[in-house]
C-alpha cells in the first residue's frame, strides 16, 4: 500500500488478545489485597510521595542510632516547623518512631514494619 505516494506500509493484521465480550456483561475480579490493606499501603505511598521524606527515610534506614531532628534541620534547607511536618507525616504512616530526650526528638525507622512496607522502604534505593 502506498501512503502519500512514497512509503510502503504492510497490511495490518488484527490480533485477538482480549476475549470478545457481550456489551453490558462484566465479571468481577478476585482481588488479592483487601480494601483495608490497600488503604494502609496507599497511606505509606502518600507519605513517601515527597522527595524530602524519601531522603529522611533513606537516612534513617542507614542510621545506626536514632537521628536528632536538629540534624535534619541542619541537613535540609528547610525550617524546623517544615521538618517537623514531614516527620509527623512519616509517623502517621507508621514509618518512623520518635523519642524525646530533653528538648530534642530523636527519630528512627519503625523496627516492626509490615513485610510489604519494609519491601517498599528497601526498594527506595
Q: In words, what does this structure look like?
A:
This protein is an alpha+beta fold. The protein is built from five helices and five strands. The chain has helices spanning 35-47, 51-62, 69-75, 80-92, 115-122, and strands at residues 2-3, 7-8, 67-68, 96-101, 104-109. The strands form two sheets. The protein has a three-stranded antiparallel beta sheet with strand order 3-5-4. It has a two-stranded antiparallel ribbon with strand order 1-2. A hairpin with a 3-residue loop joins strand 1 (2-3) and strand 2. It is elongated, with a radius of gyration of 25 Å. The N and C termini lie far apart (50 Å). The mean pLDDT is 87.
Short overview:
It contains five helices and five strands, in the order ββααβααββα.
Q: What descriptive keywords fit this protein?
A:
125 residues, alpha+beta, three-stranded antiparallel β-sheet, two-stranded antiparallel sheet, 14% strand
Give the SSE map.
Layout: E1 2-3, E2 7-8, H1 35-47, H2 51-62, E3 67-68, H3 69-75, H4 80-92, E4 96-101, E5 104-109, H5 115-122
Supply Rg.
25 Å
- Helix and strand element order: EEHHEHHEEH
Low-confidence parts: none
Strand order of the largest sheet: 3-5-4
Summarize the main sheet: 3 strands, antiparallel
Beta-strand portion reads 5-15%
CA(first)-CA(last) distance: 50 Å
Estimate the mean pLDDT confidence: 87
Shape: elongated
Number of strands: 5
Instruction: Please count the helical segments.
Output: 5
Category from helices, strands and their pairing: alpha+beta
- The amount of helix comes to 40-55%
